[in-house]
Amino acid sequence: MVKITVIGGGTGLSVLLRGLKNIEDVALTAVVSVADDGGSSGTIREDLGMLPPGDIRSCLLALAGDETGMREILAYRFSEGRLEGQSVGNLILAAAADIYGNFERGIERISDFLKVKGKVIPVSEERMVLCAELENGSIVIGESQIPKVVRSEESHIADVFLESGGARISESARRAVMEADSIVIGPGSLYTSVVPNLLAPGMRDALSQSRAIKIYVANVMTQPGETDGMSLSKHVDTLFNYMDAGTLDHILINDKKLPEDDILKYTNGGAAQILASDSDREALRAHGVSIIEGGFIDMQRGYIKHDADAAAYVIRTLTRNHILGHD
Questions:
Q1: Confidence of residue 325 (pLDDT cuts 50, 70, 90)
Q2: Would residue 27 count as lying in a domain?
Q3: Which of 86, 218, 241, 310 is the least buried, fewest Cβ under 10 Å from its Cβ?
Q4: What is the percentage of the chain residues whose pLDDT exceeds 90?
Q5: 104 and 125 Cβ atoms separated by less than 8 Å
Q6: Residue 81 CB: number of other CB atoms within 10 A?
Q7: Residue pLDDT, tens place only, 202-257
Q8: Do 64 and 153 sit in the same domain of this protein?
Q9: Are 56 and 117 in the same domain?
Q10: Of 122, 156, 187, which closes a domain?
């Protein structure tokens, strides 16, 4: 059984999990950021003093044995009244955490109910408050506020960090990293979904000590208010600010250029497709990272996503070769 641990958060992580769960003989674990403080998750986090359930819920649904049976109910958001904007799935996770004594145990019981293929683990059992320093010197507190302030002050992110006394990596997350055959980082919002996991004290050391191969699935588009104008190599340079040098072994890069008309709504919003340039490739090789380019992009009903099946196949092959000593 091949052990694959995926680290991230947001929509990108749940999309990739849908591809990985279809591969046979894989023991899959998702280590998920708990820095979210906006929307339905933020309300529950503040009202109940628990970890935000939103990204956890998305991963559980992605790995569910029968997504169609409960997807609509768990993804449903109330449209009026005092529960307006609240997600049924988030409320159920909050109830499970209360009934079974803690958040992780609640996730386990919901996983049993949904017949989840794999495990979903919060990166920390403690409150995680993400902060950012912008290039103009401003300090922003709270994950949901960072893109807003970046846009309003027209200043890029210089650094992100956890509020003083930041949450340590959970023992379950540390074990998932140490026992993995391969560790997949991303895709997802670079500063607000991926990097928060790397900031949890203990994660950096665990990644360095793990004998797993480490694979970064690069984003296919820049994100307004977060990675405006950032090249592919700049994304990787940012990761290396929060990981030990030489930690990454491989990077999956989409090389399929989409027609301008297909991505017009994205470019009008300030996003741009991320494609590797010759200088990107040179910089990545200088970091000792193996580059794997392919058609890892998918367009569904006008929305751009990763081709999860294509990425999962490559991840599975790299992992198997690593186990067999064919790196």
A1: confident
A2: no
A3: 241
A4: 69
A5: yes
A6: 7
A7: 999 999 999 999 999 999 999 999 999 999 999 999 999 999 988 999 999 999 99
A8: no
A9: yes
A10: 122
Q: Considering the domain boundaries, does residue 285 fall inside one?
A: yes
Select from 219, 39, 228 the least CA-distant residue to 151. 228
For residue 118, what are its two tokens? 């794999």
Q: Chain centroid to CA 1: how far?
A: 24
- Whether 21 is in a domain gets the answer no
Contacts of 292 (CB under 8 A, 6+ apart): 250, 251, 252, 253, 314, 318
Token pair for residue 277? 């340039």
Q: Are residues 312 and 225 in the same domain?
A: yes
Distance, CA of 4 to CA of 127 (rounded, Å): 26
Read off the pTM.
Answer: 0.93
Number of domains in the chain: 3
Element (H, E) at 113: helix 103-114
150 and 295 housed in the same domain: no
Is there a single domain that holds both residue 186 and residue 284? yes
Strands 290-294 and 297-300: unpaired
Which two structure tokens, joined as six digits, stand for 190? 């670079």
**Contact (CB, 8 A) for 36 and 127:** no
End-to-end CA distance of the chain: 18
Q: Which residue has the tokens 């990425």?
A: 311
Structure tokens of 3? Answer: 């052990």
Residues 195, 275 within the same domain: yes
Measuring CA to CA, how many Å separate 110 from each of 19, 53, 57, 82, 84?
A: 21, 12, 10, 25, 24
Q: What is the token pair recorded at 111?
A: 């996983």
Per residue in 57-101, pLDDT (tens digit) is 899 999 988 655 676 787 788 878 777 778 888 888 989 989 998
